[in-house]
Amino acid sequence: MASIFTSSIGKKLIQSISGAFLILFLLLHGTINFFSVIDSFTGSFGKPDGLYQLGCDFMSLPIIKPLVPVLALGFLVHILWGMWLSYGNIKARGGLKRYEVPSKAKADSWSAKNMLVLGLLVLLGIACHLSDFWAKMQLQEFLGREAENPYELLTGTFGQWWLLCLYLAWFVVIWLHLNHGFWSMFQSIGWNNMIWLKRLRVIGTVVASLIIFLFVASAVNAFLQAHLWI
Predict the structure, then answer these.
(1) pTM score, two decimals?
(2) What CATH number labels 2-228?
(3) How far is CA 91 from CA 36, 85, 99, 184, 188, in A?
């Protein structure tokens, strides 16, 4: 078992598995957030029967609630483990040569060379996101207190233009991380021939773009609703 944490293959396997948790977590989170966009078109934004409210209620069900921390933990493990691997690569090479990948993966990719920096920025964004949303919703429910209105949290946060800009910049960072990490995840488990690598790079870009679209659309919509919603 110890070899999993010490061998090169084992380390990559852990990063790949935790990366799958990251993608699942973001897809789930982004989809529920996007419900608020649908609500704005159906006239249900801010109402108890709105899709976004129902999505938040669904995530609070006893059978679902335990799954969220598991996915979130996989997210956190992926970021921290990736940063540790990147630091180990830099230290092993005796200098700040950045994150290196095989030539098949186009090592000149900016995101591939800066995964440590991207990981730090993602982690910083997570801390802000936890403070803005999780601490005011899920944490309050865990403590037996009444959670804040999810619609008001959206408009209160993204309704401030400077916070919206910061979050949009953070979404770009996540896109860069996902765009590289998706195909790298499959490469780590052996899907590294040129034919599949090209396909996975395209699929990775599509998946990363879809996930970030869900978040960007939700944030921009919340900004508009903050100035239109009465």
Answers:
(1) 0.80
(2) 1.20.1300
(3) 45, 10, 11, 21, 21
DSSP sequence for 38-53: HHHHHT-TTSTTSHHH
pLDDT in tens, 73-109: 766 777 777 667 766 666 666 555 444 444 444 443 6
Model confidence at 62: pLDDT above 50: yes
Helix (H, G, I), strand (E, B) or coil at 58: helix
Enter the tokens of residue 177. 């991380």
C-beta of residue 193 within 8 angstroms of C-beta of residue 102: no
Q: List pLDDT tens digits, range 177-213.
A: 888 777 776 666 666 666 777 788 888 899 999 999 9
Instruction: Single out the residue of 10, 23, 61 nearest to residue 204, CA to CA.
Output: 23
Q: Which of 177, 148, 180, 170 is nearest to 219 (CA)?
A: 170
E strand or H helix at 87, and its extent?
helix 67-92
The residue extents of the domains of the chain are 2-228
Which of the 8 DSSP states describes residue 106?
-
Do the Cβ atoms of 141 and 147 come closer than 8 Å? yes
d(CA 12, CA 102): 14
Sign of CA dihedral 223, 138, 83, 8: negative
Structure tokens at 11: 């380390």
Distance of alpha carbon 116 from alpha carbon 96, whole angstroms? 11
Among 107, 153, 103, 155, which Cα is nearest to 131's? 153
